[in-house]
Amino acid sequence: MKLYVDGCSWTWGAEIEKYKKYRYSTHLEAHFGEVDNFSQSASSNFRIARQVLATDMSKYDIAFVQMTFPARLEWFNQEKDEFQQIIHHSYAPGWTSYVNLKTFKKILPQIRKNRDFFMKGKTMKDVTIRDNSEGDKVWGYPIQPGINVDENTRKKNEKLWKDYYKYIYQHEFGEIYETMFANAIRSHCKAHNTRLVLSTIRGMKDEPWYARDAFDGPTNYPFDFNMEKPKYPRMPMCHPTIEGHKMIADDLIECYENIF
Amino acid sequence: MKVYVDGGSTTHGAELDKPEEERYGALVADYLNGTEHNFADVGASNGCVARHLLAENDIQEYGLAVIALTFPSRMEWYNPDDKRFQQIQFHSVASAGKHKWGYPFITSGATKVDVMTGSLIDKTFKDPEGKLHFTKSGPGGWKSQTNMKFWCEYYKRIYTPQMGEAYEKMWSQAIVSHCKANDVPLILITDRGMVATTGKAIAADPFTGVTDNPLFMLDSANPKYPRAPKGHPDKVGHRMIAEDIIAKYEALC
């Protein structure tokens, strides 16, 4: 069998040395067959959907697609002739690392407080109205104005993207575009008779209520699989450890077998 | 049969006296003894058209989908005060019909900055012959000067034709796959102009130019369709478009 795999840094294997050996898609390859892993660190849902929809999925028997935080965007850098990703996260406690359930429970009050702050509606401006470039360690996180962007482009575009998150971006936009992309990915796979397991790293509201990123919060979309489970051990920047990737792979295989 | 219809102002029936009777979606539905369900709106972006299909409607309820994509440079944003999405549009006033230089001028590489330097509102710019012309940025969805400034900067510094083309391909493929997955016949239309039907330099809007996307089955900017004063198809034009849609639908069946 041939597998299509896509996603952001989680699927790419961030924070792991020899990531190609230990990331979850390698375990899927050992179980199912050859894998093409198209993931990129810091990917937006725009990039993931664009990649899936540009692919002839009839070449693949199974697709494991992991969607990411809906606030991420992308733009096309003409000078480098490539799309680059824009990410905005909060530095709030919900985003800080936790390595196991015990640690998670310890910081639960912080996470809950943080989530309440972000879920009250008027909080986006509170988060972004400051100069985030210095990294407000409590509520703000520097907006990353493009991955692999040169310093001039970064400076030139940074204010614009701050303004975007400050004045234009709304959670409603992120949520409905997540639904659009998810449904488009489902239909594209179905139209090509490719079996799909669609996952999220946001956290799901019908599972433990916390979210990986407090700015985005958990999702309402009915994903097949939630990778944001406290049982998966984490690296310092919150990506799964080698052991975590193995556990995710085992759970994805079980999820696949339950669906198909 | 319920006919799902969506698109921009052309599909909405702009410049028609009785759009709900004379637009091509209604004519196609009449021919099929069906009912037209038209979600098109003036100024709609491709994201808006995709949103209606992928997130806000159930295409399984319909027997046919007739969907037109518009100009890829259009955007949308969610207005939290009005609690609805609003459309952002940027077009050059230079029209292919009146200014043959418009399309090659704007797509020749360095010209986007020429077009968009400074405020886009009533901004003048020079054509290759030194004549002054105006660009217009549509006020759709702008609730304040702050937002207007942002979108001006966005078109000046961030938006590129490559981005528009890539997203047109993405949304068109999403629409094709969604209809196929739900077993609903689809006639996919472009309002931009197609190389295959209009030749190399005739575009409904010179800023975005023509498309060579093979997923499009029909080109509403085809010069054979007669036009109303502001460039939308007139009553006869809509009838001709409807006839072409029906022919393509019958070829599919």
Characterise this structure:
The complex is a heterodimer of chains A (260) and B (253). Chain A has 260 residues and is of the alpha/beta class. Chain A has helices at 9-12, 19-22, 24-31, 45-53, 101-118, 123-128, 151-168, 171-191, 242-259; strands at residues 2-6, 34-37, 62-67, 73-77, 82-86, 195-200, 225-226. In chain A, the strands form 2 sheets. A 5-stranded parallel beta sheet of chain A has the order 2-1-3-6-7, with helices on both faces. In chain A, helix 4 (45-53) runs parallel beside helix 8 (171-191). By secondary structure, chain B is an alpha/beta fold. Chain B folds into 2 domains: 2-78 and 160-252, 3-Layer(aba) Sandwich (Rossmann fold), CATH 3.40.50; 95-158, no CATH class. Chain B is 38% helix and 18% strand. The longest helix of chain B has 21 residues, at 161-181. At the A-B interface, helix 4, helix 7 and helix 8 of A face helix 4, helix 7 and helix 8 of B.
